[in-house]
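Q: Predict the bound structure with glycine.
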Amino acid sequence: MKVLIVGSGGREHAIAWKVSKSPKVDKIYCAPGNAGIAELAECVKIGAMEFDRLADFAEENKIDLTVIGMDDPLVGGVVDVFESRGLRVFGPRGNAAVLEGSKAFSKDLMKKYHIPTAAYEVFDDAGEALEYLKTAPMPTVLKADGLALGKGVLICNTLEEAEAGVREIMTDKKFGTAGNKMVIEEFMTGREVSVLSFVDGTTIRIMTSSQDHKRAMDGDQGLNTGGMGTFSPSPFYTEEVDAFCREHIYQATVDAMKAEGRPFKGIIFFGLMLTGQGPKVLEYNARFGDPETQVVLPRMKNDIVEVFEACVDGTLDQIELAFEDNAAVCVVLASDGYPVKYEKGFPIHGLEAFRGREGRYAFHAGTTFDADGNIVTNGGRVLGITALGGDLKEARANAYAAAEWIDFQNKYMRRDIGKAIDDLT
Ligand code: AMP
Ligand code: GLY
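A: Predicted complex:
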């Protein structure tokens, strides 16, 4: 089989690595890819939003399956373009990717189908939002409706902060058209857990749990980022939590989308908060998480290509997922200054230490080749260093040891990824 992967981050590197393990696959392409993915796949210079060029490429090169990693092309309808041309593609259509593409849509869906989530109101007028805030309890949470690179959520402690937030989102359009509408919701407290799942329109299969660290600095200080590190499984995702989510959240979401005439095929990522009143949905994503994927896929036993195909064909009920009884930790090596301002173009040393080593992975997030063919930094998040271990403590020690094998100018990492594990022991 020939497989095309669309995207260029650590998530797509992890997907490409897992696809490369499938005995069914002879050749992998990635558009546009990065310097790490280039070791496993032929990288093609087509952007993720160039739908017709991607479909042309898939047709001309007789690609058997295209896997879309990123949210923007999914919400933009890349799957519809591929399907209209008779090309096999893994991911939700535009009308289903709206589960991530519009927070107002996903909140209304949860309300209609009684899926537990924070209480909320939707606004498309700044004046009405400001009026509502006058009686809203603080803290409160403001969310731009559309995609905003994971940055469209503001947690406001005071009325003044919240009023300024409404103006940023709706009047100043800080997040562009994503702020044409907004959600104002109840502030919840509790531990966060990420749960990824495969869905074929009807059947859902849950992957092992994980947890992201979204803030830039230790102790969850600093700005929100795309994710500074992850661990899997989450010890807080107990059997009891799992049973509750299976009963009230997972299948209910898939059934709701089907009932709305928007059958969902692809990955649903459930961002959950374990509150005092039980697990609630913080958000849905319509794709693999980044960097959750970097800790979940190395633990997965299945041939991922078989699972992708079962989702496309609607035969997921015939597949059971299996995960190793171990743990994984991913520490993101970033460029100092991320997520605000950072430099690029520095040579990366030490990558050879990972070659051929089982259980230690350097997933590339923002890397490229310079004119001399050296691998250099090319983004805020540069590498996701993932290590396996018998348990979370061991995986964490292994990941931090492996993070030291790598050297580049302005290298920055959080030192407390997975530290919450210590609270338990
Ligand atoms: P989201 O993109 O919706 O997952 O929001 C980003 C982050 O904001 C989440 O991971 C939470 O840490 C936080 N967050 C979102 N919604 C709420 C809420 N209702 N209460 C408390 N924190 C929230
Ligand atoms: N790690 C969070 C996300 O992928 O949105």
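A: The chain is about 30% helix and 30% strand.
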